[in-house]
Amino acid sequence: MREIRVVPRRDFRVPVEAEKISPDIFAPLTIEEIRKVEVWEGNRKQALIDLFEISGDGDPAKPEEVLIKLDGNFSRVKRVGEKMTCGRIGALGDIGMHAGNGMAGGEIAIKGSAGDWLGREMRGGKITVRGDAGDYVGAGYRGEACGMRGGEILIEGSAGDYLGEHLCGGTITVLGNAGDFPGIANRGGVIVIGGDAHLPGAEMASGTITVRGRARVLPSYQYQETVEIDGLSLKKFLGDLVDNGKGELRVASVEERGA
């Protein structure tokens, strides 16, 4: 496995558009060539070496044999791993918005927290986050009919609002809580929330959402039955009937309206 270490030279005051930090881009390049790769810091084009210290194995390799280690504060570094197809990225701390955009394969492992739009329109591969994640995890960007289409996202902490918006495939698991409207306009994916959520599955046509904690359920969902899954009793609903939806919503504890 070829290892490449990337360390910020300073804290960034404006975002860095770093879609070129990817095993697919780095794999055929030597360390000296990687250092010359250009990215945008705000409205200024910069070489990676101007912003980051880059070290590691110098010889080119296949993308699937590349591990990129991000060591330091990457909270303002955006689009890391965009459209990557294989290989691995490991962030030792936080990472910025749009990490894993359009990702088709490989793995991104984040020991800290992730910004908004994590795994946007993801098609394959796996993203794991030990901390929290922001809004629009696995969602589609403005005007897109589908968000995440395949792959797996695991968030060990909590997630923000609009988790899995326009989800068309794949699996998103959040061990903590989710914010408002998780699974909105779901079109076939799977969402599992270990804690609480608010108004899951609005406009859902198909797919499955499981809330193992407490949730307020939209009145446009029809109660079906109580099911046992992994030793937990869950109330199963069908909806969203406003959209003639046939999605399945399972909730452990239903929050009463007005409560």
TrEMBL record:
Enzyme class name: oxidoreductase
Protein name: formylmethanofuran dehydrogenase
GO molecular function, one term: formylmethanofuran dehydrogenase activity
GO BP, one annotated term: methanogenesis, from carbon dioxide
Catalysed reaction equations from the record: N-formylmethanofuran + 2 oxidized [2Fe-2S]-[ferredoxin] + H2O = methanofuran + 2 reduced [2Fe-2S]-[ferredoxin] + CO2 + H(+)
Organism for this UniProt entry: Methanothrix harundinacea
EC numbers: 1.2.7.12
Pathway terms, separated by semicolons: One-carbon metabolism; methanogenesis from CO(2); 5,10-methenyl-5,6,7,8-tetrahydromethanopterin from CO(2): step 1/3
